[in-house]
Amino acid sequence: MFSRISKAVKAFRERRFVIIFSENEGEADLAIPAQEIVAESILFAARVASGLLCLALPRERLKELKGEFRP
């Protein structure tokens, strides 16, 4: 398990996506640090994965952007 976590941390440091798989839900998510997002990252995620693009933000920043909060 530790090996997988350290590989994920390494991938994040190298500005690469990490696949997070949920056995309970039978689905996977692509994750990348938000500060590393560029147009190519969004295009890759849209092309390879299907579903929602989500971004985790502090509530204060979300209010500044006038975004909608979804838990």
TrEMBL record:
GO terms for molecular function: 3,4-dihydroxy-2-butanone-4-phosphate synthase activity. GO terms for biological process: riboflavin biosynthetic process. Transmembrane segments: none annotated. It holds the Pfam family DHBP_synthase. This is 3,4-dihydroxy-2-butanone-4-phosphate synthase. The lineage of its organism: unclassified sequences, metagenomes, ecological metagenomes.
